[in-house]
C-alpha cells in the first residue's frame, strides 16, 4: 500500500500544488490549545516549520505568529520555505529530514496519511471540538485517527457585478437560488449583455472546468466520480447526467472559461468587467479590492437537486513522525490553531478561521463578503477524494472541453477520461 501511494503521489504532486497555492477553514477545551504547557521547559529549543511560499501578507502574518510563540515559550522557530512544496517535502520525508511541523493541504492528506509520515494527534488534547466538523474530517484517516489540525479555510461563493447587472435591468435578487434555473436566467442575461455591449464582449458567467469546482454538481443525487478503490467512474450514469446539465450552460453560450474570454482566471475576467457573475473563493476578495475598480456583491452558492453546496479548501498543520521535538511541535500546532495564533494568521493573511469561536472573535459577520463565505463553511464539501483524485481530475480536464463545446457526448468523453485515468492509476500500483 505504501509503495502504491508513493507512486501515485509522484504522479500527482504538480497538480495538487497548483490547488494548494490558489487556496490559502468552542468549548472549554479550546483554551488548553492556546497556551504552552508548563510541564516542560522549552526555552532554548528550536522548531522548524515547513511551508510553501506565500504573498507578503502571509509572510508577515507567519512572522508575527512565530514571534508570539517564541515569546511565550522561549523556543526559537525557523521556517523552511519550499518552492515545489509537495515534491520537495516528499523527498525530505523519504530522507527523514522533514521539518518538525508542516503544512498539509486537505487534498493531499490521504497520500501522506497512507505513507505513515505524520504523528497521530489526540483529539481532546488538540481541542478539536472547537473546529468545524467537516474540516476536522478532512484530516482524519479511515480508522478515525486525526493527523492534522485545520489552520484556515476558503470557500466558494457567488460574486456578481452590480453595475453590469443594473445596466441591463437585472437585479441581484434575480439571480436564481437553484442551479437548475441558471440556464434560462443566464441565457436571458447573455442576450441583454450582447445587445448592449456587443456579442461576446461580456459573458454572463465565467467558470473553471475542473473537479475542484464541479465535483459537488457531478456527484449530486448520489453519483461518484470514483469507486471505493479509487478507480475513476466519470462515465457512470449519475455523473454523466450531471455533466450533461453543465454542458447545456456552455452550449447556450452564457457560461465561459477565462481562456474563452482571453484572460487567465475568474478573478481577472470579473475584475476587468468581462463577466457579470462568477463562483470564486474568498481569496479573490482582496484582489478585487486592491487591483480592480469593480462594484460587486456576493451571495451564497445555489442549490442543486435540492441541496446547497459549496467547496471548502483547507490546510492543516501536521507533525513529523520522526521529529525529535514532539512536545514542542504539539505546542506549536496548539498555538497556531488556537484562538490567538489563528486570529493573528487569518487577520494578517486574509483567510477564514477554521473555528467558529475565532470567526466570532474576528467579527467576520460585520463584512458582508466574509459573512457569506463564512456561512458557506458549515455546508461546504472539502476538496478531497482519496489518493487518486488528481489523476482523475487531469483526465476530466482533458476530455470535458469536448463535452462543453458539443463536440462529443458526455458518455463517450467520460469513458475516454476513465480509460486514461485508470490506466495511470494501474501503472502506479
What would you note in describing this structure?
- The chain is built from 17 helices and twelve strands.
- It has 429 residues and is α/β, with parallel strands linked by helices.
- Strands 1, 2, 3, 4, 5, 6, 7, 8, 11 and 12 form a ten-stranded mixed sheet that branches. Strands 9-10 form a two-stranded antiparallel sheet.
- A hairpin with a 2-residue loop joins strand 9 (303-304) and strand 10 (307-308).
- The relative contact order is 0.19.
Attribute tags:
single chain; 429 residues; D-Maltodextrin-Binding Protein, domain 2; 2 domains; ten-stranded mixed beta sheet; 17 helices; 12 strands; 45% helix; disordered N terminus
Strand content: 15-25%
- Please give the CATH class of the largest domain: Alpha Beta
**Name given to the CATH homologous superfamily of the largest domain:** Periplasmic binding protein-like II
Number of helices: 17
Q: How would the blueprint of this fold be written?
A:
Blueprint: H1 2-22, E1 46-52, H2 56-73, E2 76-82, H3 85-95, E3 101-105, H4 109-115, H5 133-138, E4 148-161, H6 162-167, H7 182-197, E5 203-206, H8 211-218, H9 237-251, E6 255-256, H10 266-271, E7 275-281, H11 284-291, E8 296-299, E9 303-304, E10 307-308, E11 311-319, H12 326-336, H13 339-349, H14 356-361, H15 368-377, E12 381-382, H16 389-404, H17 410-427
Parallel strand pairs: 1-2, 1-3, 5-6, 5-7, 11-12
Antiparallel strand pairs: 3-11, 4-7, 4-8, 4-11, 9-10
Helix pairs in contact: 1-4, 2-13, 16-17
Amino acid at each position: 500500500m505504501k509503495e502504491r501511494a508513493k507512486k501515485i503521489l509522484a504522479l500527482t504532486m504538480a497538480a495538487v500544488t497548483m490547488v494548494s497555492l490558489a487556496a490559502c477553514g468552542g468549548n472549554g477545551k479550546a483554551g488548553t490549545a492556546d497556551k504552552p504547557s508548563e510541564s516542560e521547559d522549552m526555552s532554548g529549543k528550536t522548531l522548524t516549520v515547513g511551508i510553501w511560499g506565500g504573498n507578503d501578507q502571509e509572510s508577515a502574518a507567519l512572522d508575527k505568529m512565530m514571534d508570539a510563540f517564541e515569546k511565550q515559550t522561549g523556543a526559537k522557530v525557523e521556517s523552511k520555505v519550499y518552492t515545489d512544496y509537495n515534491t520537495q517535502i516528499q523527498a525530505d520525508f523519504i530522507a527523514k529530514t522533514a521539518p518538525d511541523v508542516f503544512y498539509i493541504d486537505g487534498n493531499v492528506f490521504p497520500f501522506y496519511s497512507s505513507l505513515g509520515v505524520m504523528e497521530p494527534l489526540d483529539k481532546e488534547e488538540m481541542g478539536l471540538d472547537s473546529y468545524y466538523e467537516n474540516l476536522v474530517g478532512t484530516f482524519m484517516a479511515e480508522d478515525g485517527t486525526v493527523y492534522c489540525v485545520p489552520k484556515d479555510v476558503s470557500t466558494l461563493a457567488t460574486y456578481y457585478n452590480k453595475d453590469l447587472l443594473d445596466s441591463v435591468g437585472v437585479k441581484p435578487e434575480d439571480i436564481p437560488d437553484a442551479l437548475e434555473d441558471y440556464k434560462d436566467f443566464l441565457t436571458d442575461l447573455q442576450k441583454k449583455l450582447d445587445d448592449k455591449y456587443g456579442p461576446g464582449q461580456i459573458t454572463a458567467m465565467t467558470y473553471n472546468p475542473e473537479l475542484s469546482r464541479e465535483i459537488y454538481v457531478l456527484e449530486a443525487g448520489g453519483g461518484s466520480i470514483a469507486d471505493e478503490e479509487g478507480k475513476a467512474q466519470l462515465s457512470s450514469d449519475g455523473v454523466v447526467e450531471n455533466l450533461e446539465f453543465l454542458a447545456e450552460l456552455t452550449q447556450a453560450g452564457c457560461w465561459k472559461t477565462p481562456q474563452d474570454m482571453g484572460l487567465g482566471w475568474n478573478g481577472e475576467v470579473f475584475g476587468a468587467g468581462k463577466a457579470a457573475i462568477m463562483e470564486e473563493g474568498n481569496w479573490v476578495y482582496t484582489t478585487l479590492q486592491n487591483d480592480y475598480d469593480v462594484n460587486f456583491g456576493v451571495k451564497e452558492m445555489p442549490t442543486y437537486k435540492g441541496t446547497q453546496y459549496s467547496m471548502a479548501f483547507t490546510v492543516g498543520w501536521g507533525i513529523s513522525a520522526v521529529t525529535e521535538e514532539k512536545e514542542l511541535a504539539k505546542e506549536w500546532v496548539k498555538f497556531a490553531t488556537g484562538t490567538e495564533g489563528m486570529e493573528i494568521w487569518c487577520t494578517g493573511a486574509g483567510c477564514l478561521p477554521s473555528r467558529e469561536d475565532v470567526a466570532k472573535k474576528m467579527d467576520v459577520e460585520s463584512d458582508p463578503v466574509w459573512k457569506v463565505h463564512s456561512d458557506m463553511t458549515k455546508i461546504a464539501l472539502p476538496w478531497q477524494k482519496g489518493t487518486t483524485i488528481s489523476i482523475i481530475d487531469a483526465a476530466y480536464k482533458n476530455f470535458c472541453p469536448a463535452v462543453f463545446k458539443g463536440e462529443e457526448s458526455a458518455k463517450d468523453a467520460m469513458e475516454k477520461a476513465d480509460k486514461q485515468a485508470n490506466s495511470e492509476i494501474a501503472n502506479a500500483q
